[in-house]
Give the backbone structure.
Amino acid sequence: MHKDEKQQDNVTALLKAQVEQNKMMQEAVEKLTEQKEQENKKKGFISRLFNR
C-alpha cells in the first residue's frame, strides 16, 4: 500500500517538473522568436546607411 502511494507521489512530482520544464522551453522559444522578428524588421534608410 505504501509503495503504491510513494510511486504516485513520484509520478506527480515528475509531472510537475515536466510542466515547469515545458513552460521554460516555451518562454525560451518565444524570446528567440521575438529576437528573430526584431532582426528581420525593416530598418529605415538612415539606420541602414550608418550601421554598415
